[in-house]
Amino acid sequence: MKASVSYRLFNGLNITFLSLLSLICILPLVHVLALSFSNNSSAAAGLVKLWPVGFTTDAYRFILSKPAFLDSIVVTLQRVGLGTVVNLLLTLLVAYPLSKESSDFRFRTLYAWIFVFTILFNGGLIPWYMTIKWTGIMDTIWALILPGAVPVFNIILLLNFFRGLPKELDESASIDGGGHWTILWKIYVPLSTPALATITLFTIVWHWNSWFDGLILMKVPEHFPLSTYMQTILVHIDLTSMSGKDFEVLKDVSDRTAKASQIFLGALPIILAYPFLQRYFVKGIVLGSVKG
What we know:
By secondary structure, the chain is mainly α. It has helices at residues 5-36, 40-44, 58-64, 67-98, 108-120, 125-134, 152-163, 167-175, 180-191, 193-209, 212-217, 226-235, 244-250, 255-290.
């Protein structure tokens, strides 16, 4: 059936608008990438647009030359790996009972509102810090994981997804003798791939980008995660620990090029991981938001 003129006009305008919107999102990242590979004078003069001017890798050499950089990568990988597992496990264990009806789980609504309350109100920075200090996990990897081990937003997203699954699945599993553990791990989890992929992406991004907690909970720079290390390398440069080679590199690196390389290195892993999760991400966030 031939499309009408109005439909083709609308479709063309829609494609044009979305293409422009995509460019608005992509071009800043392209500019940052070009800036990170440009020399000091070109960046300072504002000559860099979407292509490097005076191509150089000095900014990356300056950042990657530090042993602390490799240490921070190891810490971040540990945090992302352990943190994602802990977050997903606790999210599943909390979302499953909260997804039940009040007739199946008494005080279910009360518990749900307690979790929502923690989104709106918290004890503040000082009580948060003192609690972590008194538990004895300061300056350890667990100080970066346990304080945020229960992500309430992810719990709400997943429990709404669970509530959208057919109740007949629970009933048939119960008739066959399956308990709650069986229903959760053999029915709910396999059917929740889109929602779990969405939560996984949220969790990885949060752990990868978080820098403030590493700054105040880690006592030595060797224990800093990558985002914290990159934030401090330009703000608190230790000139006494630099060698002559470092100064040779630093004289050709401007604040703009160094920050651009920092931004791109920090965003690169997420950029690489997103295409593999994108097909689940959109479906998961929509289903988890509207069903319930």
